[in-house]
Amino acid sequence: MTLDSSPIVAIATAPGRGGIGVVRVSGKNLGTMVTAICTLPQGAALQPRHATYTNFVDADGSVIDQGLALYFKAPHSYTGEDVLELQGHGGPVVMQLLLARCLQAGNGIDLRMAQPGEFTHRAFLNDKLDLAQAEAVADLIEASTEAAARSASQSLSGVFSSIIHTLVEQVTQLRMLVEATLDFPEEEIDFLEKSDARGKLDTIRSSLDQVFQQAAQGALLRDGLNIVLAGQPNVGKSSLLNALAGADVAIVTPIAGTTRDKVTETIQIEGIPLNIIDTAGIRDSADAADDVERIGIARTWAAVEQADVIIHMLDACRGPTLADEHITARFPDNVPVMRVWNKIDLSGHRPAIDRLDNATHIYLSATDKLGMELLRAELLRLAGWQQTGESLYLARERHLIALGAARLHLNAAAEHAALNDHALDLFAEELRLAQDRLSSITGEFTSDDLLGVIFSRFCIGK
Ligand code: GDP
Ligand code: ZN
Questions:
Q1: How much of the chain is in helix, strand and coil states, percent to nearest 5?
Q2: Which of 130, 183, 202, 252 is the most exposed place for a label (fewest CB within 10 A)?
Q3: Ligand 1 cavity residues, CB under 6 Å
């Protein structure tokens, strides 16, 4: 991502048609642009934080649209810069016209199109948000379940960041204590006892463990569980998906081989997104009719390797077929497999769960909704979901990695303390490393490369 301080512009609302569409501009010296586009009374300017009803006009004075102009003066804006929002009618053509008009009128101030996430990146650089909060903006927009959205909101409002700050604060205090002692070598000997450094470290370690666990739950709400639904045509994969979703999301049909492509459906159990890939009864690629099908099959196997769990579905009336053995042989060793025996309403089995030969077997009926709760509970168990009843904050894999690394440094510090080897300098160094890792979560020590990666995944206009 190239960073300069040019004013930027983008359509901030989603593509497509809507009641209102917003073009947003951020940067310095927006005044002349405003007077060129908006039909304000002679000599007037937009009043910060007031909505002004106006025409939006072309260079020749012809009206593009009518709407509201909003102006936010730096630093009291989303980005921390001057921000202008033009709210017009939410049609793709009128929005494009308004955008083009902004670029034209902003030519003199080097106005350019914003890159993905650039508004939020500026907000971060201007200290309007820390990095974890900025990530929460994207996660709130992307949230696929209500629980994920609520947790992202928590993170955005700074709940997660302040927990991290508290940890950093505690580590810093302990470190200052240790470093002060380093200057007086004769006192090092009983420093650990006198200052209760060990006790303090243990307290920090247990808070960190707690934060890690909560963050792991938050990451689960964000990323969910990737599930591959495999099995022969007509065993009831689509029906199971529908039964789990509680709505008709997948096409259920009695004609074999209808689900031709890899289809991902996100459904939820207790707010956890389950990203389910409903595979067509995977055929051998040698049997594939054409290249398109072969590519589809290759993609499906790639998805199988990335899965958190494979649901291998079978017909409880028929038992496993030769084709099932072929499928099973190709399952990767490192992905847990759940065998779901469907249609027990016909076979006469009871709803049940059995853990046998490295696989869990569940007996159910997707259409008659028998045994579905066994499957739901098993999926939640595999996901590592613990019902705490507490409100969560959303977290990302990146945060978990940083927390995990910080934990290792604190463990190493504890070892130095336990050895009583007078290696207080090493003890202090581990604290410093832990502190750096924790700070990277909120972005105090974060490389430009990482920032680029994080913000480039945002949508344009955010
Ligand atoms: P898929 O090809 O594996 O996706 O299978 P579908 O979900 O399309 O189901 C194939 C047929 O089996 C449909 O006619 C379903 O109504 C039927 N079916 C699915 N699950 C059950 C079940 O639990 N009991 C009974 N009796 N029929 C089922
Ligand atoms: Zn199907």
A1: 45, 20, 35
A2: 183
A3: 231, 233-239, 252-254, 259, 342-343, 345-346, 365-368
